[in-house]
Amino acid sequence: MIVRFPESLSRVKKLFGWISMVSMLLALAQAEAMQRSSQPLVIVLLGPPGAGKGTHAPPLSEATGLPHISTGDLFRTHIQQGTDLGKLAKTYIDQGNLVPDELVLDMLFDRLKEPDCTQGSILDGFPRTLPQAKSLDARLKGRCAMLVLNFYVPDSILIERIAGRLICRDCKRPYHKLFDPPRETGFCEQCGGSLYTREDDQEAIVRKRLTVYRTETLPLIEYYAAQKDVLKEIDAQNSKDGVFHDILEVIPTSIKARRHLSVQ
Ligand SMILES: [Zn+2]
């Protein structure tokens, strides 16, 4: 036994060496996770028209304490308030052109400077294309953790949802051919006005919008899928409550805890 002592001592030393290396690696991983969880979180809502992003954004904002920023609303606010960015955006819109990405980012980062965005934000409508996602990353410069929620619904269901929408010509009350039909086909139960399908909601146009959407966003989805822990698929065919439950499941507990603390 005594003779073997130096040998077992070196084994013990080796073992301690391994243990300290493993614990150092664990500490590093923990430090990285802590840094990630203490960083502001930018949640991007991604999904085709009719997938329910608009339905879930307000309760998600409520649950996380992060403001919901829709780029459509940002445009409208800047244009209404007549800011320099708004005036510039209007020149593009009036000529029927798309607002350039850099201008959208200027508006977005102007909004992200507000005090309610220090913990992060929920982006709706941006980024929509790969170049937009890369520009956003370049401006965020790794200062924020990203979480992309991709709302998945098969096209056939989206078409049924959107192309079934009806609106009253007079009081504008919405109906749905399958999910919320009027008592008398073709007429509003509130005012008796005639019901119609919006131009945008015609089946052929919905199909075209979906094709454009899929073509534009596929590279974006691949881009986020290649990054660790960023892309989360949300099956948006389920009931409203079921989908929201799935969304909350993928939100980091640190964010929910922060919300809890700020509520107290
Ligand atoms: Zn009506």
The level of helicity is: 40-55%
**Which whole number gives the mean pLDDT?**
88
Task: List how many beta strands DSSP finds.
Answer: 8
The oligomerization state is: single chain
Biggest pleated sheet: 5 strands, parallel
Structural class label: alpha/beta
Listing every helix as H and every strand as E from the N terminus to the C terminus, the arrangement reads HEHEHHHEHEHEEEHEHH
**Largest sheet strand order:** 2-3-1-4-8
Rough shape?
Answer: elongated
Estimated share of beta-strand residues:
5-15%
Through-space gap between termini: 63 Å
Unreliably modeled segments: none
Query: How many H/I helical runs?
Result: 10
Question: Explain this structure to me?
Answer:
With 264 residues, this protein is of the alpha/beta class. It has a domain at 70-113. 55% of the residues lie in helices and 14% in strands. It contains ten helices and eight strands. Strands 2-3-1-4-8 form a five-stranded parallel sheet, with helices on both faces. Strand 5 (165-168) and strand 6 (174-176) form a beta hairpin. The radius of gyration is 25 Å and the shape is elongated. It starts with a helix and ends with a helix. The mean pLDDT is 88. Zinc ion (ZN) binds at residues 168, 170-171, 173, 188, 190-191, 193.
